[in-house]
Amino acid sequence: MNHSGACAWLAYETSRASGFSPAAFAADSFARTIAAAPSEICEDVPAVMVPSLAKAGRNLPKVSVVVMTYNHRRYIEQALDSVLSQRTTFPCELLISEDCSTDGTREVVIDYQRRHPQQIRLLLSERNLRSNAVVARGIDAARGQYVAMLDGDDYWIHDDKLQRQADFLDA
């Protein structure tokens, strides 16, 4: 379902050495919103893009998209298609953090990963965690300069969303 709402942007300037905690970040992410992007860059879906802790290097994605999902079988294909249809001038990766769904969501994300092995990395729970650890592990696994987060029951309506948001953050 495509939720309406404001687009939240975070600039989280810290490092592992200064005590960065992905779990604390995930639990408190919206409380740390420090600036709102212009409305023309936002979409109907709330989104968060934060500088990640990835080291600069060759072949690293500029944006890591983290999709968190649990029992989103009815929606996950539309969510993943909206990410895979993004048009960018930079490399992106898609991390799917799946929390041991019981409705067939896991099978769908495994199928997508098999069809897009260069773009999709799976983070699968052995048991249902029911916690922000599902979000935190996605953020921790991200290799991009920025992290965009999307719930498995949401989707993006513009195929240039990531390009426009990264351009805004780079300006």
Describe the protein in words.
This protein has five helices and seven strands, in the order βαβββαβαβαβα. With 171 residues, it is α/β, with parallel strands linked by helices. Helices cover 26% and strands 19% of the residues. Mean pLDDT is 77; it is low at 1-56.
How can the largest sheet be summarized?
5 strands, mixed
The percentage of residues in β strands lies in 15-25%
Assign a percent range to the helix content. 25-40%
The termini sit apart by 32 Å
Structural class: alpha/beta
Strand order of the largest sheet: 3-7-4-5-6
Count of distinct strands? 7
The shape, in one word, is globular
> What is the residue-averaged pLDDT?
77
* Tally of alpha and pi helices: 5
H-E string: EHEEEHEHEHEH
Poorly predicted runs: 1-56
What is the radius of gyration computed over CA atoms, rounded to a whole number of angstroms? 15 Å
Assembly of the depicted chains: single chain
In short:
With 171 residues, the protein is α/β, with parallel strands linked by helices. 26% of the residues lie in helices and 19% in strands.
Topology:
Elements: E1 8-9, H1 22-27, E2 35-36, E3 48-51, E4 63-69, H2 76-84, E5 92-98, H3 105-115, E6 120-124, H4 133-141, E7 146-151, H5 161-170
Parallel strand pairs: 4-5, 4-7, 5-6
Antiparallel strand pairs: 1-2, 3-7
